[in-house]
Design brief:
The complex is a heterodimer of chains A (458) and B (166). Chain A is built from 22 helices and eight strands. With 458 residues, chain A is mainly alpha-helical. In chain A, helix 3 packs across helix 4, helix 20 packs parallel to helix 22 and helix 21 runs antiparallel to helix 22. The chains are: A mainly alpha (458), B mainly alpha (166). Chains A and B meet through helix 2 of A and helix 1 of B. Chain B: Its main location: membrane.
């Protein structure tokens, strides 16, 4: 016994000490972790600063809502999906354009676009879309700016709520009118941030709210077509509707109406592409005149909200935020992910909530739709190019003015339809069959335009 | 003199070891108690929601069609013998704790193949009368190896939401 104990050497004992110290260390670490997890279970919101209806700086809101703010800042990430997102291209900063990174030019990726928009600013510069963080700078330094854009553009390229309030002495509608009428360079002086917390949230309750007058008017006009009179979106919309409406404030088809360049959403006949076209026909509106054919043209913008509203997800009551701001758990809190991006980059949380299958399968299903869509867009653009060729030829060959006019009208319509889904930011996913229908019609309109020119003179 | 110092040194070292071992046991016992460790050895469904990640599943289960009749263990632990039942509990317990401690897990949670197999078998335990005929029609004579049945005739492929529709 005595001999045995005396055999325990100093190194052995040291080893035991280190070992049991290590075990104690790990155990306390685990204990602390369990304690933290239990604390997380009692979720709390800490109001550390006062925010009110004039707090436009998202960093101030971020002090009260650090989780949401951290995610919001991530919209600066540039990530590519198969058919969307953006790739970072190095850019040598110049005095005119101080950006050191830009996104790829879509005019080079899809060469037909340049000709489709001939004579319009979009044929000069059209790039992959980047995250919300870039909305101010990308709008400021696009080549399109050289044409001299109106202040109306800032409506969606910056956080305008507080600016509109200040300009209108508390009346956002009055401020809106003033901002529209300014040149862009002047309007941007009133704007400090890209889209911020205050553009979607009520500072007192954090409830969603609509801050853009153009959406309030547009959605009221649309609801009127449904027989709903005197629709006030901030009073009458449901919470789930709001989770799409706040995005629909900007992700829509729009135009600048009249000499005041008043921002207007063409929803007086409905939310479909046909309804928008009908609206423009009634207004006799044109964005520009085609440089090759002389047709009075329409530029479709980015009708994400409208196309989504025609799709199966809208039908099932799934909102924009359900997929693009999927709920996530931080500790015990369930929050909307404010890192707004393609659901393809967050498939489990976005799609997996309803579609219980693997990420790979969900991406494959989505890309199936998008691959077919891209093929159809190609066909529609080629058909349009053929129509432009034919009109040019007919003009040279002295075909009657009346026929040329008719063909130009088809060019206007075919362009608007193909542009409507090309400029839309989901590569057809928001409503696959509707997008295919629109492209089929566009192809048909191009063909009809060609036929007009071929008819023998009556 | 030499012997006395050695004796003193020995006493000190034994004391240190005793304190450390006692410390480990003490802290360990406290941690086990604080984390409601004993609750995992029983079959109360509430203990599955000890970590709040499962709170939603628990809430949904209470209201589900199975909430009154089947516990978590009824569907998520094997029923063939005690060994495999406790193996399952230990395995899931370990991986769940690891995931929750490190925070390295995805939301929505997805069931693993092993656990899907366990659940499939559990459906068949209670609904044997109903399912036996269907299984035979689907795959012919039933082998002990159930993988064929799970592949072709999965209960939870269609009845995904009976337990807890989250």
């Amino acid at each position: 016994m005595k001999k045995q104990t005396s055999q325990i050497t100093l190194p052995t004992l040291l080893l035991i000490v280190i070992l049991s110290a290590g075990i104690c260390f790990a155990m306390v670490a685990l204990l602390t972790n369990i304690f933290e997890r239990k604390q997380e279970g009692r979720s709390t919101i800490m109001r550390v600063v006062e925010i009110d209806d004039d707090t436009s700086d998202p960093a101030v809101w971020g002090k009260n809502f650090p989780l949401q703010y951290d995610d919001y800042l991530k919209t600066a990430d540039m990530i590519q999906t198969t058919y969307g997102g953006s790739e970072a291209i190095p850019h040598v900063p110049t005095d005119e354009d101080p950006r050191d990174i830009v996104s790829r030019s879509k005019l080079e990726l899809i060469p037909q676009l340049k000709r489709m928009w001939a004579g319009y600013a979009f044929s000069k510069d059209y790039r992959e879309k980047r995250g919300h963080a870039y909305m101010l700078t990308d709008q400021l330094y696009t080549e399109r700016q050289k044409v001299g854009q109106p202040g109306t553009c800032i409506h969606c390229h910056g956080s305008t709520y507080v600016a509109m309030k200040e300009l209108g002495n508390g009346d956002i509608l009055a401020g809106f009118e003033k901002l529209n009428a300014m040149p862009y360079s002047e309007a941007k002086e009133h704007i400090k941030h890209p889209v911020a917390c205050i553009d979607c949230h009520d500072p007192d309750t954090m409830a969603l709210r609509i801050t853009r007058p153009a959406f309030m008017e547009g959605i009221a006009a649309y609801k009127a077509t449904q027989g709903i009179k005197d629709y006030d979106v901030n009073r009458d919309a449901t919470r789930q509707e709001m989770r799409s409406f706040v995005c629909g404030q900007c992700h829509v088809e729009y135009y600048f109406k009249g000499d005041q360049k008043r921002l207007t959403y063409p929803w007086s006949e409905g939310l479909t592409v046909d309804a928008a076209y009908e609206h423009f026909e009634k207004e006799e509106f044109k964005d520009w005149v085609h440089a090759e054919t002389g047709a009075p043209m329409l530029k479709a913008q980015h009708p994400e909200f409208e196309l989504w509203s025609q799709g199966i997800h809208a039908r099932a009551g799934v909102s924009c935020a359900d997929c693009h701001m999927a709920y996530k758990r931080v500790g015990a809190m369930k929050i909307s992910d404010h890192h707004i991006r393609s659901p393809l980059l967050n498939v489990n949380a976005s799609c997996g909530t309803c579609h219980k299958t693997s990420d790979q399968e969900l991406i494959a299903r989505t890309e199936n739709i998008q691959t077919r869509h891209r093929k159809l867009v190609e066909v529609a653009l080629d058909a349009l190019m053929d129509l432009i060729d034919d009109i040019n030829k007919a003009k040279k060959n002295g075909v009657s003015e009346e026929k040329i006019k008719k063909a130009q009208q088809w060019q206007r319509k075919a362009t608007f339809y193909v542009d409507y889904v090309e400029a839309e930011n989901s590569s057809g996913f928001h409503a696959g069959q509707e997008a295919a229908r629109i492209l089929a019609e566009s192809i048909d309109f191009s063909r009809k335009g060609q036929n007009v020119l071929r008819e023998s003179t009556p | 003199m030499n012997q006395i110092t050695r004796l003193k040194l020995k006493t000190v070292l034994y004391l240190v070891i005793a304190v450390l071992i006692g410390g480990v046991i003490g802290i360990g016992t406290f941690t086990f108690g604080y984390a409601n460790g004993a609750s995992y050895l029983k079959a109360d469904s509430k203990s599955c929601a000890n970590c709040h990640v499962m709170q939603g599943h628990f809430d949904a289960w209470v209201k589900s069609s199975h909430g009154k009749f089947a516990s978590c263990n009824d569907c998520h632990a094997p029923h063939d013998n005690v060994v495999s039942a406790y193996y399952c509990k230990a395995r899931n317990g370990f991986f769940h704790s690891l995931a929750f401690t490190t925070g390295d897990f995805e939301e929505n949670l997805r069931i693993t193949d092993y656990n899907r197999g366990v659940t499939e078998q559990a459906c068949r335990k209670c609904h044997a009368d109903l399912v036996h005929q269907i299984d035979i029609l689907a795959v012919g004579e039933l082998n002990k190896d159930s993988s064929e049945r799970l592949e072709s005739n999965s209960c939870i492929r269609c009845h995904l939401t009976v337990g807890h529709d989250t």
